[in-house]
Automatic annotation (TrEMBL):
NCBIfam families membership: adk (TIGR01351)
Entry annotated with the keyword Transferase: yes
GO terms for MF: AMP kinase activity; ATP binding
SUPFAM superfamilies with a match to the protein in the record: P-loop containing nucleoside triphosphate hydrolases
Family: Belongs to the adenylate kinase family.
Region (Disordered): 153-172
InterPro entries according to UniProt: Adenyl_kin_sub (IPR006259), Adenylat/UMP-CMP_kin (IPR000850), Adenylat_kinase_CS (IPR033690), Adenylate_kinase_lid-dom (IPR007862), P-loop_NTPase (IPR027417)
Limits of the Adenylate kinase active site lid domain: 141-187
Matches recorded under Gene3D superfamilies: P-loop containing nucleotide triphosphate hydrolases (3.40.50.300)
Transmembrane region(s): none
Protein name: Adenylate kinase active site lid domain-containing protein
Organism: Lotharella globosa
Alphabetized UniProt keyword annotations: Kinase, Nucleotide-binding, Transferase
């Protein structure tokens, strides 16, 4: 992990990876693979926004209903959260954006921000899946709040899961690592998924075209293990190629968290 990072003086080229794909494609499921390869944090705008809703602030109350219905949150709220988050110390070597950008305005705003910092997106990983599997994936999902770990009642059940009248007993849905209770997201319903997919189809062709140079596509159909393995190969390739590029740089600069 240390080896592929290149630094000259204090300067480090940040690896900025974006995960693209429809709701339920598996962005949150493959993120740990990217994270463990690069040693950089996963920033999920959905998770950041759910934290805001839990805090019960004015903004939280404003966006709660939008999110439950599966509507996109206004760009300025998302951009403000993200701008603050990427300056944290843990992003000094890069970060993974999960669920961002969702609109062309967000893609362009990200580019403006990165250009100011003399940076760019290093890879846009598009998880391509058969649309017919999305509802099953979304409606069977259970999440662990603190870690962001995701489970699925049939493809990836928690070890503790027991059935009651043929359905998972909520009392037995617990995180494998901590034993803490899992929860189901308020927007993981067939109705909200329809709304989320409308936005996806409206914006994604443009976004995929925008990132055509940095884009890598992974087949997101198949088992979790198969998809994670494909992502792992792509990341190995990425690390080899960026290692070469990074070593061509001869710059001295300041870590982003100190700006
Ligand atoms: P967000 O939290 O980003 O949700 P999303 O993009 O809709 O994506 P999901 O988290 O639903 O899916 P995923 O691809 O991560 O799938 P996962 O890996 O969990 O956004 C939520 C809301 O926040 C938005 O609707 C919007 O309101 C707001 N928002 C967020 N970002 C915004 C932005 N930038 N601008 C404006 N508003 C924004 O997998 C799903 C399930 O399938 C899991 O149970 C998993 O175990 C299972 N699974 C995954 N892969 C496989 C496999 N290969 N085989 C079998 N099962 C699998």
């Amino acid at each position: 992990e240390e080896e592929h990072r290149s630094s000259v003086g204090d300067f480090v080229m940040r690896d900025i990876i974006i995960l693209l794909g429809p709701p339920g494609a598996g962005k949150g499921t493959v993120a740990p693979v990217v994270k463990s390869k690069l040693g950089v944090p996963q920033l999920s705008t959905g998770a950041l926004l759910r934290d805001v809703v839990r805090q019960d602030s004015k903004t939280g109350r404003k966006i709660k209903g939008m999110m439950q219905k599966g509507e996109l949150v206004p760009d300025e709220i998302v951009m403000k959260l993200l701008k603050e988050r990427i300056l944290h110390k843990d992003c000094d070597r890069g970060f993974i954006l999960d669920g961002f950008p969702r609109t062309m305005e967000q893609a362009k705003a990200l580019d403006t921000l990165l250009t100011e910092m003399r940076e760019r997106v290093t890879m846009a990983l598009y998880i391509k899946v058969d649309p017919s599997i999305l509802e099953k994936r979304i409606c069977g999902r259970w999440c662990h709040k603190r870690s962001g770990r995701v489970y699925h009642v049939s493809s990836h059940p928690p070890k503790s899961m027991k059935l009651k009248n043929g359905a998972p007993d909520p009392q037995t849905m617990r995180d494998d690592k901590t034993g803490e209770a899992l929860y189901q997201r308020a927007d993981d319903t067939p109705e909200a998924l329809k709304r989320r997919l409308v936005d996806f189809h409206k914006h994604y062709d443009g976004i995929l075209e925008y990132y055509r140079k940095a884009k890598k596509t992974v087949n997101g159909n198949g088992s979790i293990q198969e998809v994670r393995k494909r992502v792992s190969f792509i990341m190995d390739d990425h690390m080899t190629s960026t290692f070469v590029i990074r070593n061509a740089y001869d710059l001295v600069d300041t870590p982003k968290s100190k700006l």
